[in-house]
Design brief:
Strand order of the largest sheet: 5-4-9-2-1-10-13-12
Largest sheet: 8 strands, mixed
Domain DUF3857: 54-211
Protein name: DUF3857 and transglutaminase domain-containing protein
Organism: Chryseobacterium turcicum
Signal peptide: 1-18
Distance between the termini: 79 Å
Keywords: Signal
Number of strands: 38
């Protein structure tokens, strides 16, 4: 079952006028940086037996501005077999006066996925509400009975930026006789804390007065900042399949036998596919050929049918239909490898831009994506099976540098995905630029990207020529292009590199100073703005390390010479390294620029040091060269 405190699933039944939440009662601390304030949120969780949990949910949100409208809309996520009842919604104005009430009949019921064509047993009921003024408060309460007891949600204050919380409670009444494990994860930055009480075996967890996390520059994922409490029953049910999850090994055996083995059957058609590939060479060569064959005949389509959306499609379905989701495509790839005599592991991972790993000491169901690991004598091969364009043995930034649950016949093994170094996450840029007396430049460039920087440029693969030109023009906005054309685009799916060339003309690059011209040292760079912040509230994070290596060759206009140019310079700090050099050579100026940024999570006290580091780099990038007519 999905976390019940999803975006928009908030309510509290109002009995007295004092409970209708006038906005004047919100403190200034909670209003600061907040688009919405969770006024009072309550979940009562009744565990009745191994295959029955009842959630009684109620909460109230005050919406301060339009940015939080979608967050506050009443939504109920449920699976086939769930029972939802006692739905009530009331909307109040700024002073707490009732505007309107709604019931279950006002809700719309849709499939709970927004990714286009898909098949899903996951559903969502939602209420459309268009506010006429701000602020307002929306109450929402409902009960939900669930036969799946494997998905007890974490208890967190919130999961998003610019949301504050006045009070939230999570009560657990366990009548099942099954042991319920819990683990509290404190905020590593002391941002908030959870209070725990235990009376007659009933656990009550509460948060109070938690300020909003503003989406400051480089702020980590809120999940890395706020505290949480995790829960897991020792015995559980998942759509009629019962199991235990007291340790990763036993849970892995259950997972393998109940979710993977039933969908691991090959077929004569799949056997024929492998035979037709005429595999030869090393294991690595065979895996690559199979993987790229699989990519060529499949596409990603979300599927969440059957056992809670956690069991893959049958491989013959994927083979025949040519589509599947991460589960189905990874399982199909696994069966293809099995037919070639190559073992592989089905791996659950937390896919997100900020790396989040599983707790080795607290086994529970989790993860939101599936990848494949192929062990070889030369090391593990990692396969992302949902992309038709992704390179062989390459994982994107959303799945690297974290652990995975590798499901094996004898249990789950927790394994680490690759962590790419700054040298692997690289951009190489070579520009040849003609400076013109009319303040324009014409140029040719060659760009190469690897590692995570490969990921960020992979989207060009699916674009037509006109779209490529438009996209690169927007991406390289530090130049005022009159025209730009990308050519020779190459996504090397063997080596995980992207290369392309540019032909361009840009206007207003230089400025006249009398009869001379000045222009900046580096034409194309990251156009970011950094400001000192003496009141920074949160840590900051460079989510991956990388290197940029530029060589820029300027051809001077005929009859001109370099009169002034900057000194070579370097900047070294805990955050990375930068250096830039200048060389005159005949009628040319050669500028070489190198920057290395280190991955890291840093305290708020270091933020202004980081800003100073980046400003020094920006100043060096924008340092000026003066050229004049030869006397």
């Amino acid at each position: 079952m999905m976390k019940l405190l999803c975006l928009g699933a908030f309510s509290l039944a109002s009995i007295y006028y004092a409970q209708s939440y006038p906005v004047s009662e919100i403190s200034d601390v909670l209003k600061k940086n907040a688009s919405a304030v969770i006024r009072n949120e309550s979940t009562v969780l009744e565990i009745n037996k191994i295959d029955e949990i009842v959630y009684r949910n109620s909460s109230a949100i005050t919406v301060i501005n339009k940015d939080a409208v979608s967050f506050s809309l009443p939504k109920i996520y449920y699976e086939k077999g769930n029972s939802v009842s006692n739905i009530k919604v009331t909307v109040y104005d700024e002073k707490g006066a009732k505007i309107k009430s709604y019931s279950k009949s006002d809700f719309t019921d849709v499939a709970a996925n927004s990714q286009g064509s898909f098949h899903s047993d996951s559903r969502m009921m939602y209420l459309s509400y268009t506010p006429t003024s701000y602020p307002y408060t929306i109450e929402f309460s409902y009960d939900q009975k669930d036969q799946n007891t494997i998905f007890i949600p974490d208890f967190t204050p919130y999961n998003d930026f610019n949301i504050s919380l006045q009070k939230s409670s999570f009560k657990i009444i366990n009548k099942s006789g099954i042991n319920l494990r819990s683990k509290t994860y404190d905020s590593p930055f002391g941002f908030a804390s959870v209070n725990v009480s235990d009376e007659d075996g009933i656990k009550l967890y509460t948060y109070q007065n938690v300020p909003a996390i503003d989406q400051e520059d480089m702020v980590p994922n809120p999940k890395k900042i706020v505290p949480k409490v995790s829960f897991s029953l020792d015995q559980f049910n998942l759509v009629g399949k019962k199991g235990s999850i007291t340790n990763w090994k036993d849970f892995g055996v259950w997972y393998y036998n109940n979710l993977l083995t039933p969908v691991s059957a090959s077929t004569p058609q799949i056997k024929a596919e492998i035979a037709a590939l005429n595999l030869s060479g090393s294991t690595e060569e065979k895996v690559k050929k199979i993987y790229q064959y699989m990519q060529s005949k499949t596409r990603y389509v979300f599927v969440a049918l059957g056992i809670g959306g956690w069991q893959p499609m049958m491989p013959d379905e994927v083979q025949k239909k040519g589509y599947g989701d991460c589960k189905g495509l990874s399982n199909y790839m696994k069966i293809l490898l099995d037919e070639a005599g190559i073992p592989s592991y089905y791996c659950k991972v937390n896919s997100s831009s900020s790396s989040i790993s599983f707790d080795k000491d607290f086994p529970k169901m989790g993860g939101n994506h599936i990848i494949l690991c192929v062990p070889t004598e030369k090391g593990n091969i990692w396969l992302e099976n949902t992309s038709q364009d992704m390179a062989y043995n390459h994982l994107s930034f959303s799945t690297t540098d974290r652990n995975v649950l590798a499901v094996k016949p004898d249990g789950i093994e927790i394994m680490e995905t690759p962590s790419y170094s700054s040298q692997q996450n690289k951009e190489k840029q070579v520009l040849n630029i003609q400076l013109n007396p009319d303040k324009t430049i014409t140029g040719k460039g060659k760009f190469t990207y690897t590692g995570n920087q490969y990921d960020f440029n992979l989207s060009y693969s699916g674009l037509g020529q006109t779209e490529k030109n438009s996209a690169i023009k927007n991406a390289l906005s530090t130049l005022d292009f009159e025209k730009v054309e990308m050519s020779d685009f190459n996504n090397n799916r063997d080596l995980a590199t992207i290369d392309f060339n540019l032909n361009f003309k840009a206007v207003n690059y230089s400025k006249m100073v009398g009869s001379s011209y000045i222009f900046r040292a580096v034409p194309i760079y990251t156009n970011s703005t950094f400001y000192q912040n003496e009141n920074r509230n949160l840590p900051f994070e460079n989510r991956f390390s990388y290197e940029d290596d530029y060589e820029i060759v300027y051809q001077l206009p005929v009859g001109y010479t370099i009169e002034e140019m900057p000194e070579n310079s370097a900047v070294v700090s805990d955050f990375g390294t930068y250096k830039i050099t200048f060389e005159k050579k005949d009628e040319k100026l050669i500028v070489k620029r190198f920057i290395q940024i280190k991955k890291g999570l840093h305290s708020k006290e270091k933020y202004n040091d980081y800003v100073s580091f980046r400003k020094k780099i920006m100043n060096a990038d924008n340092s000026k060269i003066l050229i004049s007519k030869k006397s």
